[in-house]
Amino acid sequence: MQVKHIAESMEGGIVPIVKLPPHLENGLAANSRTAAVFIPLCNRHGVPSVLFTVRSNLVGSHKGQVSFPGGHIDADETPIEAAVREMYEELGDNIGPIHTLGICQQVPAKTMTPVTPIIGFIENDVGDFEHFAPSMSE
Questions:
Q1: Looking at 3-82, which runs of residues are DSSP E strands?
Q2: Which residues on neighbouring strands pair with residue 117, listed in sequence order?
Q3: Is residue 2 classed as helix, strand or coil in its secondary structure?
Q4: What is this structure's pTM?
Q5: 118 secondary structure, DSSP code
Q6: Residue 104: what pLDDT?
Q7: DSSP state, 73?
């Protein structure tokens, strides 16, 4: 895939998203909690697509927002491991194999939490999402 080739050719394997203004870069460094999101590329009925989720109104933050699957990075995880874990927790293990294509530079969430976006691909066609079964712990 071209995205994976681009990511591998970038310095440190990180795909730059934007040049952050200095006040945002400084805010990222000050925050001790970090998060990761998985940007899932997929096919839906054979059409190349990007999959978004809608956050529950029962969660503590970002209620009802359109988002990518993701969450806080545990102490023993890399951003990629956290994004993959969150992807399966939120969409269910039965979505099938996913492939990590690249890691993007950290960007601030609305709360100034540093978020590392991970670009990946869902191997199976998502169809009408009939095979998605999120974990009951979410």
A1: 14-15, 35-44, 47-50, 53-54, 66-67, 70-72
A2: 37
A3: helix
A4: 0.76
A5: E
A6: 87
A7: P
* Six token digits for residue 31: 């925050």
Helix (H) or strand (E) holding 5: helix 2-9
pLDDT over threshold 60, residue 29: no
> What are the angstrom distances between the C-alpha of 57 and each of 3, 40, 60, 88, 99?
34, 22, 8, 20, 29
pLDDT at 138 over 50: no
SS3 36: strand
Q: Report DSSP state, residue 1.
A: -
Per-residue tokens: 44:
């839906």
Q: What type of residue sits at position 120?
A: G
Helix (H) or strand (E) segment spanning residue 25: helix 22-30
Residue 24: enclosing H or E segment and its boundaries? Answer: helix 22-30
